[in-house]
Amino acid sequence: MVQNILITGAAGYIGGSVLSDLLATSSSALKGVRLYAAVRTQEQVQALSKLGVNVIQMDISDAETATEAVLKNEIDMVVHTASSILADIPILLIQALGQRRQVSGKQTYFIHSSVITIYSEEAGWPAGEVKDTDPLFQKEKELASQHPVVKTNIAVVEEALKHDVKCVNIAVPTVYGTGTGQWRKLSVSIPAYIRVSIEHKIVYKFDKDGSPPAVHISDLAELYVILVEKILQEEDIPMTETGYYFAMAHRAPWWQIMDGIANALYARGLVPEPKVHIWPSDEMAAEYLGFPAAYIRAMGTASGNATPVNAYRLGWQPKWTQEKFLESIDDEVQAVLDFDIGNTNIFKVLHPSEN
C-alpha cells in the first residue's frame, strides 16, 4: 500500500496545482498518505512549507540525491511533473523506486508527464487518428524518433519494466488558466505569446492555423488526482506499456486565441492596434518566444488527430470547454500582468544557444 508520495516540480505550474489539489481532496484513498514536495530553491522551500507538507530542496538530476530522497523518505510513488524532455531524470527516479520496492517488498509507482503534440504529423507521427488506447509504446520504438519527448517516453517504460515499477504517462496538451500552487502560476505557451506581444508592441501568429489539444489547469490537476486515487485503491487500470493518458478536454484554435489576445492587449493600450500579423519567419518566432527552433512548427501550427479514451474511462470529466476557454482570453492576459515571473527555462537544456 502506498504511504508516501513525492511530487517533483512542486513549485511549478502543473506540480504546484497537483499538490494543491491533493491537499484539498477529501478522498478516503489519501487518508494517511504523506506528501513530499521536491523543489529547487530555499525560497520555494519557505513558500511551500506553510502548506504542511514535507518539502525537500534537491537536485533531482543527481543520482545520489534522488536515490537518497526516495529511500530515506520511503517514497512509494513519484508524481513527476518537473520535465518531459530529459530522460536521465525519470530513469534515476525509477531506479530509486526499484530499490525502494526491493527494500519494502511493496509495489512502487511512477507517474510521468509527457507532451501530446508529439502525436502529430508536424512532430513526425504518422497521419491519421491516434488514441491513447493504441499501442503507443511499440509505435514509439518503431519510429525510432530522435525527438527528446519520444525518447524519454520510451526510456520511462523500459526502465519501469526493468525495475518492476508500474508507471503511467500523462500526455499534457496546451494548458491554460491560473495555477493554484504557491509559486509559478502560469503555463508556458500562451503567456509567452502575451509577453512577447507586450514587449514588441505587436501580436504575431503563424502562417498556418493550428488547433492542438488543450486543457484547463484545474481539469488537468484533477486527472492527476484521479490517477493517484486509482493507484492507491489498487484498481486495475492501464499501466506501463498501455498506461498512456491523453489529458485532452478540447482543442485550442490558435488564430482565434491570437485575435483574443490582440483585442485584450489593445483594450489595455499595450499594443497600438488589435490586428494580428504573420510571423516574418519561424526563426524569429523561436527567438522571440524562447522555444526551440527545431520544434517551433509543431508547437505553433500542429493540430494532430489525438483522441482521448483512457482518461475518460477513469471517470475524468473536464469542466472547461473550447467556448469557455475562448471567452476567458482576457483573463489569460490579465493573469500574465498579475503573476508573470519571467519565461520558463525548460527548453534551455535542449538548445541553450537559442534561449
UniProtKB/TrEMBL annotation:
<dbReference type="GO" id="GO:0004029">
    <property type="term" value="F:aldehyde dehydrogenase (NAD+) activity"/>
</dbReference>
<dbReference type="InterPro" id="IPR051783">
    <property type="entry name" value="NAD(P)-dependent_oxidoreduct"/>
</dbReference>
<dbReference type="Pfam" id="PF01370">
    <property type="entry name" value="Epimerase"/>
</dbReference>
<dbReference type="GO" id="GO:0005737">
    <property type="term" value="C:cytoplasm"/>
</dbReference>
<protein>
    <recommendedName>
        <fullName>NAD-dependent epimerase/dehydratase domain-containing protein</fullName>
    </recommendedName>
</protein>
<dbReference type="InterPro" id="IPR001509">
    <property type="entry name" value="Epimerase_deHydtase"/>
</dbReference>
<feature type="domain" description="NAD-dependent epimerase/dehydratase">
    <location>
        <begin position="5"/>
        <end position="230"/>
    </location>
</feature>
<dbReference type="InterPro" id="IPR036291">
    <property type="entry name" value="NAD(P)-bd_dom_sf"/>
</dbReference>
